Amino acid sequence: MAERISDAEHAVMEVLWEEAPLTAQDVAERVDPERGWSTNTVKTLLGRLLAKSAIAHEEQGRRYLYRPLVARDDYVMGESRRLIDRLFGGRLTPLVAHLAERDELTAQDISEIEALLKDLKA
Amino acid sequence: MAERISDAEHAVMEVLWEEAPLTAQDVAERVDPERGWSTNTVKTLLGRLLAKSAIAHEEQGRRYLYRPLVARDDYVMGESRRLIDRLFGGRLTPLVAHLAERDELTAQDISEIEALLKDLKA
DNA sequence: CCCTATTGACTACGTCTGTAATCGGAGTAG
DNA sequence: CTACTCCGATTACAGACGTAGTCAATAGGG
């Protein structure tokens, strides 16, 4: 089931997570223009996502409406875990430490996370 | 330079980050046995990493000694940023929040990170 | 009813990846 | 000198990916 969503496919998923159901046409129109994809490319990606059961489609007249089957949260969680496991021995602290060391954290980030953690303990 | 290191290649890099320089043979012996790679496979990966300048080799008699050119920290940072940008709009807080929501944080994690952040402000 | 525009399905194709066998040259044991 | 061995380099090959063209069916416009 966890058929591993590729990068290009992910771009399509983002569209459907944002709004669904949509027709292939709609999706093509909403994909990040950065990509510069042709409609056909988007259709192929939709087809592949269907094949891996990441999305589903229901007939609507002579076209299909696509909707995500995988929740964004689940995908995001999976990817995050994969990275943390692979690079930080499965622990979040080293990641935060790493970002901190490289000055990738703003004062605001720090406050936000502190507040968040405080809440967690409550 | 930033030739994007693949997953299999990454496994080889981990060995060299752990200890270097090493011969191809040494690397093959130290790669995670989980992978079950033949020596040839490791050699191919070393070749590809050379091609993308992620590692370098120096002649030592009849063989080569391989050493990393890319620092682990840089690699790790790059991958982390990529994930955070792609999935969390470039901000760390949502990632932490996400992990928290899914109960992926232990009490110890929380304390550690709090301590870390406290230090940062000092 | 016939032509054209639309839509999903199928096909294409070069690149990258994972995995490995093979080839050719250089020492090494006789 | 000769057969063998060790090593890096070259080649192989299937499956995933990014990207897109073509085909067949269908639904409207005349």
Automatic annotation (TrEMBL), chains A, B:
A Pfam family: Penicillinase_R
Signal peptide range: none
GO BP annotations listed: negative regulation of DNA-templated transcription
Assigned keywords, A-Z: DNA-binding, Transcription, Transcription regulation
Domain of life: Bacteria
Annotated GO MF terms: DNA binding
Similarity-based family: Belongs to the BlaI transcriptional regulatory family.
Descriptive protein name: CopY family transcriptional repressor
Organism: Sphingomonas yabuuchiae
